[in-house]
Design goal:
The protein has 363 residues and is of the alpha+beta class. It has two domains: 132 residues, Histidine kinase-like ATPase, C-terminal domain (Heat Shock Protein 90, 2-Layer Sandwich); 200 residues, Phosphatase 2c, domain 1, CATH 3.60.40. It contains seven helices and 15 strands. The strands form three sheets. The chain has a five-stranded antiparallel β-sheet, with helices on both faces.
């Protein structure tokens, strides 16, 4: 079962815990000594910044798939997320410049964190707090090359945008394993995003959601409704899970969704949000006879948010979620941050996975 590291940063002793968690995650991802040291430095700097600028916050470390999937297998990355409810930043570009640091930090600064990372994104709003997400894989890209564009349909017409995905997973009560899991696969033009919520929480819930993830890697090439049927077979013998599967065909520009159990899905269409509904049931235990399927057009302004029931029932998407275009994992982290507070923490394992178009300047 995959580990998820949650480190509440309330005092300086937890900075070391964040560094150790980064080193452990790097070992799981198979990073070499040099990249492990880079991950440790990024985690240390982000944790130090939480104390210095926000009087504390939360570090989340996970091993994830890259946001843009190449054809074939892709190396997994250590994802380091820092979340706070602090005063926020009024000048994000200045904070990202090298040397923007004080004597209480390592002197590395966010600019160095960005340079060490394969992907680095920062979101900050004065009065609401800051989210930073860094991903480090086994090697450093000299420069971030353009994301793969969607293929032309061959008729000279509109070309569907490329797509990327990301997520954040928060284990309940600081547990080492989360009962929630998400996965991201590609088979040609078909991109599949899966979110699973194992029944309850703890080790057995994590075993169920992990089984869903592993099975989805085998059956991700199938249509989403058929893939859910195969997942039901794979989860038999576990306590079961709520599962949502979204598949986007970047050639046709069509998004298809199906879900079983209490996993939420919201799709932005224009200036509004559409709820995509799942059927009641538990994959691996009680599968409904018929699975509801939604098919919706996917445009350059679409955004899909999948979430488990760890979010408050009162949560609703921010009208400007993902605008301007941000890393999908940042959108997921902001969603979790804004649906909770230090006085009202998440009440269960909580995972949010986001599907978003590749920005035009990267396609």
């Amino acid at each position: 079962m995959p580990r998820v590291w949650e480190v509440p940063v309330r005092d300086s002793t937890r900075v070391r815990d964040a560094r150790v968690a980064a080193e452990e995650a790097a070992a799981v991802a198979g990073l070499d000594e040099r990249r492990t040291a880079a991950a440790a430095l990024v985690a240390t700097e982000l944790a130090t910044n939480l104390l210095k600028y926000a009087q504390g916050g939360t570090m989340l470390l996970d091993v994830v798939d890259p946001p843009v999937l190449p054809e074939g297998a892709a190396a997994r990355s250590v994802q380091i997320t820092a979340i706070d409810h602090g005063p926020g930043m009024s000048d994000v570009p200045a904070a990202l410049r090298d040397g923007f640091s004080t004597t209480r930090s390592l002197g590395a600064g966010l600019g160095t964190c960005r340079r060490l990372s394969d992907d680095f994104a920062l979101h900050s709003v004065p009065g609401r707090g800051t989210v930073a997400v860094a991903r480090l894989s086994g090697s450093v890209r000299p420069t971030a090359g353009p994301a793969p564009a969607a293929p032309d349909r061959g008729d000279g017409g509109w070309r569907p945008p490329g797509v990327r995905a990301g997520g954040v997973n928060v284990p309940f009560a600081g547990a080492g394993h989360s009962g929630d899991a998400w996965a991201w696969h590609r088979d040609g033009d078909r991109h599949t995003l899966l979110l699973a919520d194992g029944l309850g929480h703890g080790t057995e819930a994590a075993r169920a959601s992990s089984a869903a993830v592993e099975a989805s890697r085998q059956w991700g090439h199938l249509p989403h409704a058929e893939a859910l049927g195969r997942l039901h077979e794979a989860l038999t013998g576990t306590r079961g899970a709520a599962v949502a599967v979204a598949q986007l065909d970047t050639r046709t520009g069509l998004l298809r969704f199906a879900g079983i159990g209490n996993v939420g899905a919201r799709l932005r269409e224009g200036d509004g949000w559409r709820a995509l509904l799942s059927r009641p049931g538990i994959v691996g235990v009680h599968r409904p006879g018929r699975v509801r399927e939604d098919e919706r057009p996917w445009t350059g302004d679409s955004l899909l948010i999948l979430h488990t029931d760890g979010l408050s029932s009162r949560w609703s998407p921010d009208p400007d979620a993902g605008r301007p275009a941000t890393d999908p994992a940042v959108t997921a982290a902001v969603t979790i941050r804004d649906a909770s507070s230090p006085a009202l923490p998440v009440r269960d394992d909580t995972a949010v996975a986001v599907l978003a178009p590749v920005p035009p300047d990267r396609s």
